[in-house]
Amino acid sequence: MTGHDEPPLIPLSSAGPPPGGDAAGAPGTLTLVATPIGNLGDMAPRGLAVLAAADTVLCEDSRVTGKLLARHGITRTLTPYHEHNETAMTPRVLAALAGGRRVALVSDAGMPLVSDPGYRLVSAAVAAGLRVTAAPGPSAALTALALSGLPPHPFLFLGFLPPKAGPRRARISALRAAEDAGLTATLVLFEAPQRTGATLADLADLLGPRQGVVARELTKMFEEVARDSLPALAARYAEAPPRGEVTIVVAPGTGAAEAGDDEVTALLSRALGAGASVKDAAAEVAAATGRAKRAVYALALDIAKDGG
After folding, report:
1. Mean pLDDT of 266-274
2. Confidence (pTM)
3. Long-range contacts, 113-120 (Cβ 8 Å, 24+)
4. What does the pLDDT look like over 197-231, one tens digit per residue?
5. Is residue 281 within 8 Å of 303, Cβ to Cβ?
6. How many angstroms separate the CA atoms of 188 and 156, rounded?
7. What does the pLDDT read at residue 88?
């Protein structure tokens, strides 16, 4: 968020002397501070201490962070740091750190850098030999994973998939190829509410009818954790797009590695030989093996052309 109507902010270079105490680490420390993903009561005491002691708090949107600080009676310099200004801001922040400033970095919600700005700054600070630490706390990805009821480890966090259908399907297809090569992991990703139905439909088509979870508004009053098959979830959210922040969790493939091409071919031949249509045979075998419907359908067409 850019916060176009944010008030003027004090430059980093004019911040006052570092406050006493070590709540924000030693002078010249960049501290990544996790903030609530919904319920403001989830703010950790240590994170509050870091924010209260920092010379400057880097934030995506000063209105969001200002609300959090005001709730806890904290007044601090708020400096916007987001995807649109991080190139220009990073050298200024590094100079402030080198000059002994205590700098805290927050995102609007959750742990900084997790699908939020900050990686460039952390990487540059590490390269410059500056101290980087964290005051950990809430994370939508980990909360959704824990609530999903799906295997918690190993898991693969994907952030946001591409918003356009073509690149998104290509990314999912690459994941499926990795699964076929032996990857076994629960998938965790973020999605915009208006794209949730379409993304679930692509996941169902390319990964098969495995189990999935849609977690939205986590820790808030209208928290919802919907558990069902990917096709069922896709139909549900295509009809009524969800509101609020959305995290999707997808079960690891259950049969991709075990069901080899020979087994899939044998199952298709059996189904076609029993009189099933190409479409029905492909759907049946895809459901049984966890293979993507499109790939199984193409194989079924080849078998049918060759006479089964």
Report:
1. 87
2. 0.76
3. 113/32, 114/139, 114/141, 114/157, 114/159, 115/159, 115/160, 115/190, 116/60, 117/60, 117/81, 117/82, 117/83, 117/86, 118/32, 118/81, 120/86, 120/87, 120/90
4. 999 999 999 999 999 999 999 999 999 999 999 99
5. no
6. 6
7. 95
